[in-house]
Amino acid sequence: MTAALEDLTGPPTTPADTASPDSHLANNYHPLPVVLTSGEGAWVEDSTGRRYLDLLSGYSALNFGHRHPALVAAARAQLDRLTLVSRAFDHELLAPFADGLAALVGPLLAAPDGVLVLPMNTGAEAVETAIKTVRKWGYEVKGVPADSATIVVAADNFHGRTTTIVSFSTDDDARSGFGPFTPGFRVVPFGDADAIAAAIDETTVAVLLEPVQGEAGVVVPPDDYLPAVRALCDANDVLLVADEIQSGLGRTGTTLACERVGVRPDLVTLGKALGGGVVPVSAVVGRRDVLAVLTPGTHGSTFGGNPLACAVGLAVVELLRTGEHQERAARLGAHLGRRLDAMVSEGLLVTARTVGLWAGVDVDPARGTGRQVSERLLERGVLVKDTHGQTVRIAPPLVITQQDLDHALDELAEVLRDAR
Ligand SMILES: *Cc1c(COP(=O)(O)O)cnc(C)c1O
């Protein structure tokens, strides 16, 4: 039944049924049945007044929790000044944002001559920016013949949803039906440096990887993998591009996940938490000589680097500057890992992969699907989301208290125990 206007005055208490012919919302998501109305820190409240612990954190866009006071204050102050100028004009926060992000991330890159920052909005746009940059670098600097550049990527990757990016996805749902695809990508197994070596030739301009594969279920490669990839890139004049949109900005216990294994990429894509859960903010940070191939007219975005985005992004950089959130992620993450490993020992979980305050756990099919576990946790006031059938991803806000984290994990253990 089509809702009459008078029916739309109050907030809905049940989620839109996007499979229904009456829904006007496109059916490209399958959300859990909850309508959220407010949030603070690690907690959110639904339209019936029920509270939930958020262990998804907007896929790590909410690393600092819901409505972090410093981020809300920065956004509010900027709303009263200036929100958009487009890049046709400069504004007073654009250079400070670039300087701040360069100071935070630049020292972590293989960039002795410094870095440049290119602000965009969504993660996919940052990845597209990196792809365009390394291709142009390949033609103008490396000397790759026109239109023949190749980029080596990993199977089970997730880099976003644009036509070019899904061209090298190995997820059939993400890819099929969207061709013709952009050529120039070579897909090799994740975690296998020899496969990268075999895929590199004189046309190769970059290796593009997630240091930890998030959407794939928090898949952590062997510790010697990224160092080996770095060495291969150095030996073959190939750029290493780390997509840290989900893994970066504190999640794994360091500012970049690459730091864990002492690897410095040439370019890094950042997003999600860079916008503090307030506005979409993404960026490519990379070697000055590489990003310098982009000149006026070659790339851009109407909203990229807008004043509101820069105000929030700068406040995010400020939160990460002291290292306290990274330390907290490492400390709470060690606790999370111990507790999940204990659930594996108890037979409640098949496997648990934990890195920093981030985990992918595989549920025994006898105890239900990832979706069913997520739905049962929802009933107990804990929000998580399944991925790829049997996997549940756990990514609490870095500001969660250990007590709240323990409460959520107790509920997870109970749900798994009851399911048999
Ligand atoms: C989420 C994500 C993206 C895409 O970000 P959007 O803002 O959704 O476009 C790209 N890469 C990784 C690793 C991600 O997790």
TrEMBL record:
CDD domains: OAT_like. InterPro entries: Aminotrans_3, Aminotrans_3_PPA_site, Class-III_PLP-dep_AT, Orn_aminotrans, PyrdxlP-dep_Trfase, PyrdxlP-dep_Trfase_major, PyrdxlP-dep_Trfase_small. Transmembrane segments: none annotated. PROSITE patterns: AA_TRANSFER_CLASS_3. GO terms for molecular function: identical protein binding; ornithine aminotransferase activity; pyridoxal phosphate binding. It holds the Pfam family Aminotran_3. Residues 1-24 are annotated as: Disordered. It is an enzyme of class 2 (transferase). The keyword Amino-acid biosynthesis applies. Its cofactor is pyridoxal 5'-phosphate. Pathway: Amino-acid biosynthesis; L-proline biosynthesis; L-glutamate 5-semialdehyde from L-ornithine: step 1/1. Its EC number is 2.6.1.13. One of its GO terms (biological process) is L-proline biosynthetic process. NCBIfam families: Orn_aminotrans (TIGR01885). Belongs to the class-III pyridoxal-phosphate-dependent aminotransferase family. PANTHER family: AMINOTRANSFERASE CLASS III (PTHR11986), ORNITHINE AMINOTRANSFERASE, MITOCHONDRIAL (PTHR11986:SF18). This is ornithine aminotransferase. It comes from Cellulomonas carbonis T26. The lineage of its organism: Bacteria, Bacillati, Actinomycetota, Actinomycetes, Micrococcales.
